[in-house]
Write a structure and sequence with these properties.
- Two copies of one chain form a homodimer.
- In chain A, the strands form two sheets. The first copy, chain A, has a nine-stranded mixed beta sheet, sandwiched between helices. In chain A, strands 9-10 form a two-stranded antiparallel sheet.
- The relative contact order of chain A is 0.14.
- In chain A, β9 and β10 form a beta hairpin.
- The longest helix of chain A is centred in the middle third of the chain and has 14 residues.
- In chain A, 23% of the residues lie in helices and 29% in strands.
- Chain A is of the alpha/beta class and 258 residues long.
- Chain A has six helices and eleven strands.
- The first copy, chain A, has a single domain, classed as Stationary-phase Survival Protein Sure Homolog, Chain: A.
- Chains A and B meet through α2, α3, α4, β7 and β8 of A and α2, α3, α4, β7 and β8 of B.
């Protein structure tokens, strides 16, 4: 029995010192041997960016002296962290990769912009069962306590059952008290998009610049969606795939004169 | 008849001066009114990154005096370019967004790392029919001539037929001569992944750093895939969706004890 305890890789996109990842490390230390490889600075909105035209630094650090996990701080994106962890740092393929806990929602279309989920997807492409966790609270002082029991439960079930090939999980947790959370719902991604407004300003040298602002628009009233679950007090679990083929559309396009 | 000619938005991830986008502009000028909003510098491997913690510049420039298109150079990512084009620059929603021609492949799993495709997907989320084009040649001196007739044909068909909601196209073109290209195949995304190797070096100050290198591994021998089409002399067209839900996995996960 060389590997009695599961090997769990942890990363995130808010940076290695963010409260969300510290909570996730604490929880995972009770379930397995933990190795943390996380960005040295916040990487929100990085999507599935990777570092191909620049150097990568990745150094062992010790954030908390009294905790058992190995920790590495990496200059790259969340997807870079997974690549370097799997190929340079870990001696064997991890049994699980968990990413987060993100400070802010990755429900609905947010999944495509999410560094947290890109790390989970990257691990998925390497054949590693993988889960991204997000709390619907952008604050650095977010209360992660109500999330803890659900995260532990989902990770335990994932370690027990595994995940279908080509599938990772996108877990979002509503910003409500432990008592108010009604349970967990397996959902589909709600059909929504961002409606942008740009805040146009002029810099001290007279040059115009913009801040990206915007609001999320949910066009999807389905009760089987992550948005519905979160609005109604449930933790949402969406199985996410990285085969992006719209299989249903192949027939349509085959009718074109190509 | 206020809009006789279609309004076509063009962007890319190799930057506004790359030969690939200049070819695409030339072709689109024969099909519609063209507005270019593209990154001021190369953005390869940016995935669906967006700029949320930094300012965005976006300025009108004139690259080619003798051409009719409007052009804007943007400091952001490909996804930023689409957002700012649609919400700040264009007076109406474009009839089509085309991204590319990328210098290098975006077939198979490369789609998730691709700035070219993230721009197309971003436009898709805004309800705009959208296509990303890539040539399997990373060179700045790539020969885009054999691509031209296929790009024109695909764009004409897309303008005529539209695209199903939630679907954009990922078009890849093999690096072979016009005579050798056998035609166009509508495909699914091949199941492949990147196997990384990190090139570890030491900088002049004695600190270790890494270059990300790796090779693409195609596990998928299916003859209905983009990889098969490209290897066999076809232009590949994959319909891509941004509903990432693995619908087939919902039942599995519902069997967990959650």
């Amino acid at each position: 029995m060389p590997h009695k305890k599961p090997l769990i890789l942890i990363t995130n996109d808010d940076g290695i010192n963010a409260p969300g990842i510290r909570t996730l490390i604490k929880l995972m230390n009770t379930l397995g041997d933990v190795c943390v490889v996380a960005p040295d600075s916040p990487q929100s909105g990085m999507g599935h960016a990777i570092t191909i035209n620049d150097t990568l630094y990745c150094e062992r650090i010790k954030v908390a002296e009294d905790q058992p996990q190995e920790e590495y701080s990496c200059s790259g994106t969340p997807a870079d962290c997974v690549k370097i962890a799997v190929n340079e740092i870990l001696k064997r393929k991890p049994d699980l990769c968990v990413s987060g806990i993100n400070h802010g929602s990755n429900s609905s279309i947010n999944v495509i912009y999410s560094g947290t989920m890109s790390a989970a997807v990257e691990a998925g492409t390497q054949g590693i069962p993988s889960i991204g966790f997000s709390l619907l609270d952008y604050s650095l002082e977010a209360n992660f306590k109500p999330s803890e029991k659900y995260i532990t439960q989902i990770v335990e079930e994932c370690l027990k059952n595994g995940l279908p090939a080509g599938v990772v999980l996108n877990v979002n947790i509503p910003k409500i008290s432990e008592k108010e959370i009604k349970g967990i719902k397996v959902c589909r991604q709600a059909n929504g998009h961002w409606s942008e407004e740009f805040d146009k300003r002029t810099n001290p040298l007279g040059r115009d610049y913009y801040w990206l602002t915007g609001k999320f628009v949910n066009e999807d009233k389905g009760e089987d969606t992550d948005e519905w679950a979160l609005e109604n007090g449930y933790v949402s679990v969406v199985p996410v795939q990285f085969d992006l083929t719209a299989h249903h559309a192949i027939k349509d396009i085959n009718n074109w004169e190509l």
